[in-house]
Amino acid sequence: MNHDRMKTVALGSVVVIGITCAALLVRWTDTLRPPPDPNAIDESLYLNGKTARRISLGFNGLVADWYWMRSLQYVGKKILSQPEDVAIDDLSKLNLKLLAPLLDTATTLDPEFLDPYEYAAIVLPAVDVQEAIRITQKGIDTNPNAWRLYQHLGYIYWQQGNYQAASETYGRGAQIPGVPPWMLAMKAKMEADGGSRDTAREIYTRMFEESNDEQVKDMARKHLLLLDSLDQRERNPKSEVPVR
Length: 244
Hints:
Elements lengths: L1 H30 L17 H6 L5 H21 L18 H11 L5 H9 L5 H14 L4 H13 L3 H12 L7 H12 L3 H14 L3 H22 L9
Helix pairs in contact: 3-4, 4-5, 4-6, 5-6, 5-7, 6-7, 7-8, 8-9, 10-11
């Protein structure tokens, strides 16, 4: 009994020490920042991914979570500063120059953390498409059996009108054991008619069904409503269907 109690106390102490070290690390990184410039639009990035990984004292996951939350807060503040609603997949006007470095740092600290890769695929293309491709491909290189990353990369290529690259990406993802059959069907759709409205509907339907991010699901839902509106207008050109 005493042995079990001592073991529990020891494990608890390790957890407490770990959290304390992570908090001290964050406070220390804060001291490395230059003094804030009141005329600057954005803050400087605290540390790049490789440096943050070296000094994270083994608590890479905790520090990665911190950078991930900072990414969301960074985008959220930009969105709230706008006088009107903006779509999460069209934030090109918000000057999100730190978003790619923040997501890159989070995924360098924890390469198996999949949420930042999805966010990069949805949000970054309108800001910096090459960085969106690079970070998503980085996720595939590190997690070759994560089929959703192939879905995300295929989506980026589809957005750019590169249907051949999108088809190849979906095809590579379709070879992963346990992948849903629609990944292979999407490869064929891209080859046959990547620019069709039916293909767009399939992409956003799968995105809505598969994503765990409510913002992404809401974005996909709005695109599906728009596609429904376009279909209805074609069937009845005189009707006016509001797009929400």
